[in-house]
Amino acid sequence: MKFIAATVIFLVSASLWAQTPYAGMQLRQIKALSDQEIADLRAGRGMGLALAAEINGYPGPSHVLELGDRLGLTSEQRGKVQEMFAAMKSEAIPLGTRLINKEAELDQQFASGSVTPESLRAATAAISVIQGELRDAHLKYHLLTRAVLEKAQLDKYAALRGYTGGASMHRHQHEK
């Protein structure tokens, strides 16, 4: 009997949670962004924006630097990748700040009840442009980082990151 009661309570709780997946988000500073997303945007982190590159054999500068010793980076390679990482951050951080500000403006329009079809269209268009610029900034540095590495380093990177199970990694590999 206790098992049946516990099962019923669990199912009712799960049903209620499924109906309110956004509960608690009303307390966020910006409803569309979590605190972690805001922190990532402010720090210039990739947030998965460059997965198309990363998983298809175009490593990003951050992970290459993290794995530098295991990849056997030369001092010249390390210096180039460090420069790219710094450049990527100098592009991504201002874009992240702009995105946070535009999301806050959109949130405020809804919170104040001042949103109109025109203001909504303008706000979402501005947000999408910034999102595209931010993604481009991250992807661009994956492309540039790959060009600095040797084929053996790219293969080692893929293995270290756990990507060696798919054919796409080798299909796109360049020869040096």
Radius of gyration: 22 Å
Mean pLDDT: 88
DSSP summary: helix tally = 9
Helix percent band: over 70%
Structural class: mainly alpha
Measured distance between first and last alpha carbons: 69 Å
- How would a crystallographer describe the biggest sheet? none
Sequence of secondary-structure elements: HHHHHHHHH
Oligomer kind: single chain
Unreliable stretches covering 5 or more consecutive residues: 167-176
Q: What general form does the structure show?
A: globular
Q: How large a portion of the residues is in β-strands, by DSSP E?
A: under 5%
Number of strands: 0
What does this protein structure show overall?
With 176 residues, the chain is mostly helical. The protein is 72% helix and 0% strand. It has helices at 2-19, 35-43, 51-54, 61-66, 68-71, 75-112, 117-148, 151-161, 168-171. Helix 2 (35-43) crosses helix 6 and helix 6 (75-112) packs antiparallel against helix 7 (117-148). The model is unreliable at 167-176 (pLDDT under 50).
